[in-house]
């Protein structure tokens, strides 16, 4: 499906929304209010265009890639390479993999551009665009052709999913920094807002990070088209997520967005097809302040705030039971209350 012809319909439906709210209010009148579950239930009904939304076969997709920015000494998470982090996920040695399994989510790791090879694995989708991007400080991270190729790969992945729930998370050295560059440019916001981790961030670390990333910004100062921004700053995991989100939304699937990398992909997808955001709910797996800024630009908050400092995808796996419970307000509970 060509990007320009992505068929995504907005979820706005005033008549259905009123019916959904009435149904939730009737349950609340009998059993008491359920807080944030109630508006979430309404969102889920609108996403599926149904009074009884049902979700099946949820997939937690972790999109992994390396970034040329890493050669400048940024983006190393917990001192591990992207390949090492990916192997931990595949071996069920990361909480996100364990939580996904016990919640009934299928976890897949998508190799979009890890620099090193990975051995075949049942949970691995080998969709490498290239062995990592180039350094956006000295050149474009990828060619425009590679950016489009990544989007097409994501479309193919989402088109083949059997279920109607796609949780998206990013992984890779330099991934968050690449996403910050994308968001800062597309939103015309200060880069610092997206990269500062919190009040305890070391000033010399922040200064080094800003020096590198601002040099990348300066090199590509005239780039503004969403796909050209993607090509300028990377990464391959963002490109593949863009395509996956576009097709998921076209199928009226629920998109669970976890982390700043997934937020960057959603922003690019929304520049291509604005209604894609109607199908997204947001999670977080860490307290990085930059993610606060990313969520704020969507006028959104995370479903759960647990104070974690874990890999993206962890929050999505933990939020899935909450999403199922919200849907049950309109399905299981309604059925039980019917005469």
Describe this structure in words.
Residues 335-339 have low confidence and may be disordered. The protein has 14 helices and six strands. It starts with 13 loop residues before the first helix and ends with a helix. It is globular and about 60 Å long. The chain has 339 residues and is of the alpha/beta class. 48% of the residues lie in helices and 10% in strands. The protein has helices at 14-31, 37-48, 82-90, 95-102, 144-159, 175-187, 191-195, 203-219, 226-233, 236-250, 260-272, 289-297, 314-328, 332-337; strands at residues 59-65, 106-113, 124-126, 165-171, 254-258, 280-283. A six-stranded parallel beta sheet has the order 3-2-1-4-5-6, with helices on both faces. α4 (95-102) packs parallel to α13, α6 (175-187) runs parallel beside α11 (260-272) and α10 packs across α11. β5 (254-258), α11 (260-272) and β6 form a beta-alpha-beta unit. The longest helix has 18 residues, at 14-31.
């Amino acid at each position: 499906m060509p990007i320009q012809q992505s068929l995504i319909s907005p979820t706005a439906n005033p008549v259905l929304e009123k019916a959904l709210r009435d149904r939730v209010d009737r349950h609340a009148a009998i059993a008491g209010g359920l807080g944030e579950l109630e508006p979430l239930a309404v969102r889920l009904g609108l996403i599926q265009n149904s009074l009884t939304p049902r979700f099946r076969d949820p997939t937690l997709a972790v999109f992994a890639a390396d970034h040329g920015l890493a050669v400048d000494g940024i983006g190393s998470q917990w001192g591990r390479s992207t390949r090492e982090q990916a192997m931990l996920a595949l071996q069920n040695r990361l909480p996100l993999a364990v939580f996904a399994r016990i919640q009934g989510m299928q976890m897949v790791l998508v190799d979009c551009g890890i620099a090193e090879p990975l051995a075949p694995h049942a949970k691995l989708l080998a969709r490498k665009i290239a062995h990592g991007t180039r350094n956006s400080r000295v050149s474009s991270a990828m060619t425009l052709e590679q950016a489009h190729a990544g989007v097409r790969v994501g479309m193919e992945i989402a088109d083949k999913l059997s279920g109607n729930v796609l949780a998206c998370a990013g992984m890779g050295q330099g991934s968050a920094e690449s996403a910050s560059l994308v968001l800062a440019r597309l939103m015309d916001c200060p880069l610092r807002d997206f990269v500062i981790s919190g009040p305890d961030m070391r000033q010399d670390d922040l200064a080094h990070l800003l020096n590198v990333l601002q040099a990348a910004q300066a090199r590509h100062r005239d780039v503004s088209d969403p796909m050209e921004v993607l090509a300028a700053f990377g990464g391959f995991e963002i490109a593949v997520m863009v395509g996956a989100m576009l097709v998921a939304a076209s199928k009226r699937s629920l998109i669970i967005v976890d982390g700043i990398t997934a937020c960057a992909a959603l922003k690019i997808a929304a520049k291509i097809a604005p209604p894609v955001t109607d199908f997204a709910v947001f999670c977080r797996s860490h307290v990085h302040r930059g993610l606060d800024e990313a969520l704020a630009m969507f006028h959104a908050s995370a479903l759960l705030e647990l104070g974690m400092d874990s890999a993206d995808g962890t929050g999505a796996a933990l939020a899935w039971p909450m999403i199922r419970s919200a849907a049950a307000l309109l399905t299981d509970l309604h059925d039980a209350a019917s005469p």
